[in-house]
Amino acid sequence: MTTHPYSELETRFSRINALSEAGGMLNWDMATLMPSGGAAARSEQLAAISVTCHQMMTDPKMAELFEGAHAEADRLTGWQAANLREMRRQWLHATAVPERLVEQISRATNRCELAWREARPASDFQQVKPYLQEVLDLTREAGQAKAQALDLSVYDALLDQFEPGFSSRRIDEIFGRLARWLPEVLPRVLERQRAQRPPERPEGPFPQAKQEQLGRRLMQAVGFDFDHGRLDVSLHPFCGGVPDDLRITTRYDESDFTSAIMGVLHETGHALYERGLPADWRRQPVGEARGMALHESQSLLVEMQACRSAEFSQFMAPIAQEAFGGGGAAWDPHNLYRLATQVEPDFIRVDADEVTYPAHVILRYRLETALIAGDMSLDDLPAAWNEGMQQLLGITPPEDRLGCLQDIHWFDGAFGYFPTYTLGALAAAQLFEAATTAHPEIPEQLRRGDFTPLLAWLRTNVHGLGSALDTDTILERATGAKLDETVFQRHIQRRYLDG
């Protein structure tokens, strides 16, 4: 019996992605449960999976299958044609990089991440710098190979792994406008806040167990299904796993419950996107999330647009007060809303408010493009980071733990990822405005903790589309406009200056 080339490609990609999913679970375990003594063995396991997936992807037979599948393209459905397009994009990325380099990158990033886990709390950049240098050198080499294969610049080839079709030129334009806008709007927001009575902070301590219980209750309200996921602790919050087995992590501070709770809600937005991806296309490229800009839009839509709203504060306040046995004006819904929307330049990106957050991402984008281009060395990174923070936000980190060591991304080899955070914030504003325009009842539903109409709209307009369309097309269909900063700026004006 003859197998059609396209069908054979589907079978092969399903096997490759199943192995990649297994690697993802091993990574989750490494970040949450694995004893430190298992590091060397885990590094070998992950390297073996990476190499095996790469060997399967670069099998010489694949080129023949793609040629045959393109020859029969007129017989494919719309979804199949989109899947073929996405399979080919992933194949081009894989075949550009030799197997030797794939194995080296896997081992180097695992070593570097583990070194970062020790260096960060010690605020010792020099301790991890040799490992990061190895990762950076290998990433440059892979980027150069992909740039030649994809006819892109080195940085754009790395960016394409996380946001297909986007370019540094377009990011430069968007970020340039944001960088000019931020110094104008931030002082106005801060001045307006200073003219008001400061919000009261609920008094702790807030035991970790009770924070976890509250987080679970709010996750369920938003729509998280604990039959298909779990919540754990890690050094850096993240959402991993697969659509049918989602793994969320957070970190806790018993003096401030809001950081962990908002982190949990943020990661729940990621999980809802993964859970809503088209089930008929599991383990196929077209069934995956479109890119990290849309992925971040879903986490920021849940956290920033919905869960920091005045309406959601009405729902959360009595639940949080009950969880911690609090009392008094500090637990008033309006007071908690003001705390959730308090703007203050801060060192830590994941704790930043939505007004100053773009500055954190713009800084990282500028630094990583300079590092990849070879215009800056790692010796200069801590000082350049501190200088950039001073220029953009008027603050200077007192130690590297609060500066260049705070994020896992570079130490894990994810160069090209950071821009998608702010691109996601812009997309989140567009999508939330479009959803509430189409369904004006959404804010009132959030007041009751009912995310059903919002989630249903997202399932139809974003989640269920997978990678069938590009980011701009998905946004244009849902909101009437391609990705830009206009709606985000309007949102900031309404929430922080007009409200």
From TrEMBL:
Basic and acidic residues: bias regions: 193-203
The keyword Kinase appears for this protein: no
MF terms in GO: carboxypeptidase activity
EC number, UniProt record: 3.4.17.19
Catalysed reactions, semicolon-separated: Release of a C-terminal amino acid with broad specificity, except for -Pro
Keywords: Carboxypeptidase, Hydrolase, Metal-binding, Metalloprotease, Protease
Family annotation (InterPro entries): Peptidase_M32_Taq (IPR001333)
Location of region: Disordered: 193-212
Pfam families: Peptidase_M32 (PF02074)
Family membership: Belongs to the peptidase M32 family.
Function: Broad specificity carboxypetidase that releases amino acids sequentially from the C-terminus, including neutral, aromatic, polar and basic residues.
Protein name per UniProt: Metal-dependent carboxypeptidase
Organism, as annotated: Rhodovibrio sodomensis
